[in-house]
Description:
7 strands; two-stranded antiparallel sheet; 36% strand; alpha+beta; five-stranded mixed β-sheet
Amino acid sequence: MKEIEITKEPVELYKILKFEGIVASGGEAKAVIDDGQVLVNGEIETRKRKKIVSGDTIEFMNAKFKIVLV
């Protein structure tokens, strides 16, 4: 599981996908979230602006990411 470091919390879900390069753009991030392709803490998340905090996990396309506050 890869760690994603954030410097402040909370961070909106679509921004993490975009800025970490998990998807190509903010529009694509919103689309994959709308389609139910993203899991947060093991559950399908369809809210683009879901607040993500340290300790949360994100899953997309069989890749898992743990959020860590630095």
